[in-house]
């Protein structure tokens, strides 16, 4: 009887996973292989061929978008490595003052929605009218910042995705046995030589892993290239896919084919990353207790502290100031720096206009609703999967594990296209409801949630559950009375993480919202594309404040256990 | 490239003046809806408005409507014309169309989905110019005109005509353009350029390397910020900014003003059909038209305009494309425009 229950349990989980992950991906693939328009034709007519793929691969615009994606994300990754590695070394291996502050500063960009960051940087570094350029002009410097360029995109990606590299490399540096470094020093190597010939090569797997992950995340981001790439006519794969679905008539099949290409590239890189993680990453962890050496920097420690301060100013302070100026200023024409401080130019007009439209408030309510559904349903489901995979011997748990990991390799925008394909042709179905957004988010962030939950579950020793069984408790009773209470902080942390990820997600929402289910991230993009920088900045500020408050509450609820490692995947 | 025959050119030329823009001094007749319509609308309490008009302009119209009918809230979804039609088609096909009213600048596109609209005519239907109507279900809630706008802080030698915009002295990104397929208003302007100004107008204009924008809204905002100096823009997106003190100036060129009567309607699936009717009736009334003319510089398709927008002289020539050409030339001319301006698909 128990075996049958276990079998049924696994079958139910596999069924739900198929519904959440396999069915949309299969429909996406089908979409790429046919010319059916699901909106008009439903799913009745199939004419399967590879024509779309051949056409897409032969289309110079697709190849240009692919090349741009690789250049932008490649360049961004290199910069992210330089920044992330520097700060992880500064925090873990030097005597720089205020290290807790630097560690926090290194992670803050993860919480900034990419679209908000891009809007802020378009206000700061537009080549002609950017606030930084006005400042340069006022002091007689002719050189100009240009966020609307390949270089601008690379820099913005690099600075906002450096935390991925930081997280991987900081933990590797912390867990590293210093014996080899000591040997190098005894052999007469300078500290810098030791750093480049011993330390960094030793943590190479962590560096590569962080690099690949940040590259994958950048590939799937829509907000940054939409805002900074479009004015300079730099299409990337994500912006190209969105454009195809907005074409008249919309080219859904072509978009599906391009999405599959993006998924293949991403999947390959995730595979590489997992190979690296499972291969050499623990080589530096030895069995004995140790404490990595700290390099005394002398007066240079103020320089490393200054680097962190500059980083914080660039990723948080300047963009926030830019949003404040644009959100409160009536017109964003700034003659000179003096006119920036002319208080007559400032008003609440953009906020009034924003909230004149009831849709703004509705989008906030919808976003919270989607966030709550995603967090609760997604949290429960992830717990069920995590428990089944990690704590039971249920049949099919390997399959459950594999399917639940697949979304790691699917960029948000592609999840959106897949769900659109899967549900739009079925009238009366999920399309147009809050649930399609929530289910897409649950699927998209499932690997992150399960990972966050599994960590806390693995900390509970098996003998506690065994004791409960011996006392006659059923499996569900054991979960309710032993596992859940013990894992509660971890479960709350995972749910709050899921909530935050859901409320800032743009990529997958773009294809799934309707007017009744408009969410904040999409409305913000609408305002941006609607051309009013003032209202866009005002709404960005509203979002930033809301997000800061929610993250604060989440932090308190989970007592700091929120796993920030996944926050930046939303885009 | 399609070449206009002499007859076509003459026919197009004849389009000048077919729109009677007649202003009059007396105040517009106040809007007085029937009590039963107001009661029914009040019960519904809200409408969802899909619009291709610019956000801030539409919001002012909504606010004015709500001064009179505060018991009806209006939720607005705004997108450029092409994208908006796509959204409507997608939602309609899925049986999830949320719009109670669709305000659209491209009569060709809304006529293409005429079947989704309910039968509707405003109480003053007979006051409208027949040539502004392409379907008995679709109405010119707004009639927009094109002007040239420039940033006064950075333009040393402002242009004075449409033909000035092809002069090399305005090259090197000083001018910005909205892409041809953005919507019906832009399509009208580029037809005007080719049919009325010069066959090679696009090529000469493209040679000045204008900056391209996806729609008029971001283009007008960028003009105010000083991203570029000059742009042809729909008057209603720049006039309110000029009115509120932005560093820009606008003018109607003497060669003529391309105008665009909208094709707006009420979908059959409207959840609040009475509130939608009340909104449309008010928009199309003399009172609603007068508000849009005065506040936003719009024109009107009423046979007798209650007033003229500021800066619009009584003898200004207006141009409306022949609707048959407006529909028939779209695909090929847009493709040619994309090629000439180097706009990629």
Largest sheet report of chain B = 5 strands, mixed
SSE run of chain B: HHEHEHEHEEHHEHEHEEHHEHH
SS content category of chain A? mainly alpha
The CATH superfamily label of the largest domain in chain B reads Periplasmic binding protein-like II
Oligomer: heterodimer
- Helix-and-strand structural type of chain B: alpha/beta
Average pLDDT figure of chain A = 82
Note poorly predicted spans of chain B.
1-14
- The number of strands of chain A is 0
How far do the termini of chain A sit from each other? 46 Å
Task: Enumerate how many helices of chain A there are, as a single number.
Answer: 26
Q: Level of helix content of chain B?
A: 25-40%
Enumerate how many helices of chain B there are, as a single number.
Answer: 13
Shape field of chain B: globular
User: CATH homologous superfamily of the domain at 7-36 and 350-571 in chain A, by name?
Assistant: MetI-like
Tell me which protein chains meet in the greatest interface and how many residues each side has: A-B, 44 and 56 residues
Helix content of chain A: over 70%
How large a portion of the residues of chain B is in β-strands, by DSSP E? 5-15%
Summarize the SSE layout with pairings.
The complex is a heterodimer of chains A (571) and B (345).
Chain A: H1 2-33, H2 38-41, H3 51-58, H4 60-93, H5 99-107, H6 114-125, H7 131-138, H8 150-174, H9 179-186, H10 191-202, H11 204-219, H12 223-229, H13 237-245, H14 252-279, H15 300-328, H16 337-340, H17 349-356, H18 358-391, H19 397-405, H20 412-424, H21 434-458, H22 462-470, H23 475-504, H24 509-512, H25 520-529, H26 533-557
Chain B: H1 6-13, H2 35-44, E1 46-51, H3 55-68, E2 73-78, H4 81-93, E3 101-103, H5 107-112, E4 143-151, E5 176-178, H6 184-197, H7 201-207, E6 211-213, H8 216-225, E7 230-234, H9 235-243, E8 248-251, E9 257-261, H10 273-284, H11 286-296, E10 318-319, H12 323-328, H13 330-341
Helix pairs in contact in B: 2-10, 3-11, 10-11
